[in-house]
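Inputs:
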Amino acid sequence: MADSGTTGRNPKAGAQRDRPPTIRDVAELAGVATSTVSRALARPERVNPRTRVRIEEAAAQLNYVPSSQARGLSSGRTNAVAVLVPDITNPFYFDIIRGTQHQLKAAGVTQLLVDTEESSDMELDALHKMRKSADGFILAASRLTDAQLAEVSQSQPLVTFNRASTSAPTVMIDTPSAIIQALEHLASLGHHKVCYVAGPPTSWSNQMRWKVFEEDATKRGMEIHRIGPYTPKTTSGAAAADAAVRTGATGCIVFNDLLAIGMLQRLKARGIRVPADMSIIGSDDIFGADFCNPPLTTISSPIEQAGRVAVSMLLAQLNPLSGSAPRQLAVMPTHLTIRESTGPAPA
Amino acid sequence: MADSGTTGRNPKAGAQRDRPPTIRDVAELAGVATSTVSRALARPERVNPRTRVRIEEAAAQLNYVPSSQARGLSSGRTNAVAVLVPDITNPFYFDIIRGTQHQLKAAGVTQLLVDTEESSDMELDALHKMRKSADGFILAASRLTDAQLAEVSQSQPLVTFNRASTSAPTVMIDTPSAIIQALEHLASLGHHKVCYVAGPPTSWSNQMRWKVFEEDATKRGMEIHRIGPYTPKTTSGAAAADAAVRTGATGCIVFNDLLAIGMLQRLKARGIRVPADMSIIGSDDIFGADFCNPPLTTISSPIEQAGRVAVSMLLAQLNPLSGSAPRQLAVMPTHLTIRESTGPAPA
DNA sequence: AACCTTACGGCAAGCGGTTGCCAAAAGTTG
DNA sequence: CAACTTTTGGCAACCGCTTGCCGTAAGGTT
């Protein structure tokens, strides 16, 4: 009836006070080999129901938690996914982080959050340094070049968000449609002179937005302006607002809400009325867009859901299911949320 | 001159295409034992400068990145810290996450972000499940009871934020001072009937705020009301606003900005003017507090810095420096940021 | 020159799991 | 009931890195 042979440890009730129990302790208590415990936990069908129950009870009694480290070492998987965002300061990314966090947690995977500070070097660096500590990556608004992206995606599973890529699965926001809706809205309010307020030049979505803007506005015969680039923060809004006013445009489509809100503040300070004198359309519908002053008309998209989808796609890539090939592209729908920052063009 | 003996691998230029290089590959290339490589990387002074250089070059050439998993397994440290927040949805926590993220990254430690969904069970669970995968924990606004906290803090290093604890190092916000300042502000504007709009009952800071509010307002001879609890989200603002109006109070101190902003929206919808009819003071000075309508008077505190401090305290606990005992308590200063949601009491 | 320190680097035993391989046990079948 | 198949569980070799212990060569002392 030896209750604990080799080690001097005594796995008695709770066993909370000792050094954390290992798989060996469980095996001992259940009277089986460690390999059996391992199997009972990982592939239950591989072991006899009776022994399995015994093992589970032992594990529960010892309050056993497998070490993800050790598991990772031998299995080669970390059960963690890194999420890289350009700027953790930006509420937009919070939404996506929420989405990934949620879905990742549901899958029992740990989220490693990384702020790349809008720098492609940091991004590359993180990708490199963490290749051993994460099973896959989600690149939000990646600043990488196509070539870099292609290379990286070859050596590790990843999915990009808001950054088209031919080499990796991507979830995108339907920007073209969004811009067209926005322009349509402006047109229907009688605006003829429109301005695009640009964000970071390295941002793919910025390029995309401008491209569609230019095309569509031209098609409509509008007078087009473009100002920027601006860093996408409220603090850049003042400069952007001043520049926008100077173009003579009556309607602006702004790279993102942060910038747009900054502009709103400046315009108010300068006594320029929104929307009476100028209409502003933001993008992303971030937290705050609904209660700023005036509430911001903006391009909405289910960002949080986009995060979830990105995770699903990555997970599908990591655990290739039987049958269907994983989805390579998801496009999130957009719609224009019309609030009070847009109105009829001044006479 | 055997250039690669045992394994068939050929560590030639780049070696990017092979399976990732291990410490063994580096050792082989540099012509030393793996232990030496390990030391050269961890405690450079422990090896001869010449060999160290050789090793570093080898590592660089192979593009070697140590496996944090393996490192953790043998050293018993994970080089990761888990940050537990009650609600990742709440901008307030974003600020603290930013702070921890920043400081953690500076220390080369990975941040594991966990959303405990305002549940003490989930919190306990995470604490338990992750004890092997994190070296320490930062508990933001922990929902744990004192007893739980005491127990947990015994088995693993942690620091609490915005949750007093005698058992663990804590960083707090100087709530008493803040509430007193707020009340003083209200008093100076002629308000006599004040109302505290409560947040989650399990929130320590909520209890604290109420306690100080009650004390100080009583001392000033004000008429005191209390409504709530409300979930700290903008969506609860409507109910809170209606209830607040009903109390007849002319000045409200609200658990947090989220709730306060929600109230602002409702009051506006109901045609109740802020601050002409009612003054509102929020707490936290979150993103958006400055551009809501009207801009919110609120209790500000360097939240992001609090996150950094929390990390420092935790790190100090993990690597006990020679000399001084680590700090057990940090109190972040607060000040009242007066914007436009407070004004003279109605006549 | 003989002796003692020190600094440096190697050996090997783990850390806590996973997994391929194999033998014993249990279940089938004619 | 023997021969055969399928389950079930144990053995042991790793996974990649750290670290205590120890031998050796280099430098310092009288």
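Residues 32-36, 39, 46-48, 51, 70, 72-76, 132 of chain A lie near DNA strand D (CB under 10 Å from a C1'). Flag for discussion at group meeting.
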